[in-house]
Amino acid sequence: MTTPLGLSTDAARRTPAEPPAVREPRHVPLTHLVRGGIIEGVHHGSAVVLGPDGQIAFATGDPEVAFYPRSALKPVQAVALTRAGLPLDGELLALTAASHSGQERHQTAALRILAWAGLTEDALRNVPDLPYGAAEREAWLRAGHGPTRLAQNCSGKHAAMLLTARLNDWPLEGYLDPAHPLQRLIADTVADLTGQRVAGVTLDGCGAPLFSVSLHGLARAAARIATAAADTPEGRVAAALRSHPEMLSGTGRDVARLMSAVPGLIAKDGFEGVQVAALPDGHAIAVKISDGADRARMPVTAALLARCGVASETLAEFATAPVTGGGTTVGQLHAVDALTAPAV
């Protein structure tokens, strides 16, 4: 059975805990940029690792403080839409949770979702933008194109929101209003999967409502999705992400490569240095880089996944980034020693 907003009755009965604290985060060093044997730069942040039992196995910094997960929350949003009857699977469901590169296949897939609802690109209310992928953006500009709603990296999510609204006979106008039934459903699902009430609501870069939780809550939500039965909304989303990592991001993107390298992993990045990932056994990690530096996100992620038992050779390409000088490698960016410990 489901509630009027599409939540299962079991989900509706769960009472989320208090929202995370709203205060200045107590971040700590997570990565060092070393040039010529000297630490040239330090990226601070917070991180958490959950064990298969759902308990915190490792934490550093301030994983309980409220923050905005940005696009790392998209798999949770996809679960909400699927709970409300979104009929998509496979690559189209993966695109629903995507920050895509704007490749032709991404834009074509978003149009397919809109067509299912009897709509065109004109119905989208995300912010017009150029393709997110660097190569795709350059090719787009060379072809004489400008910013469009379809090329913007969240167009798949917005198309799926419109289809979900259409199927539930909810208004299409105002589908981004936090008071709209669609967005209330998403807020309820965020609270359900994270296990905590939302601390604050604002707008994401694309114009959709964005809900504040903690790193701990975000990791808990990822674990719920990664371990779900195949016939549940959570399990359908997990299967789509695992089968179509390049629809979730784009060709050559680090998240797609990481998911392809680690069997069963689901992972999603977000602007301002956010990363979440979870394994089928229930291990989950979440990362926030305090200064938003994207370059620091993956070395920390690799160190935390090693703590979850993923083989170091599998993670080698993600664990460090070279620092160059004069065309040669003179150092590297890597996680601090405190993160690189035995598996838990």
From TrEMBL:
Source species: Streptomyces coffeae
Residue numbers spanned by region Disordered: 1-25
Biased composition (Basic and acidic residues): 11-25
Name of protein: Asparaginase
Record PANTHER family: L-ASPARAGINASE, PUTATIVE (AFU_ORTHOLOGUE AFUA_3G11890)-RELATED
Classification via Pfam families: Asparaginase_II
Regions that span the bilayer: none
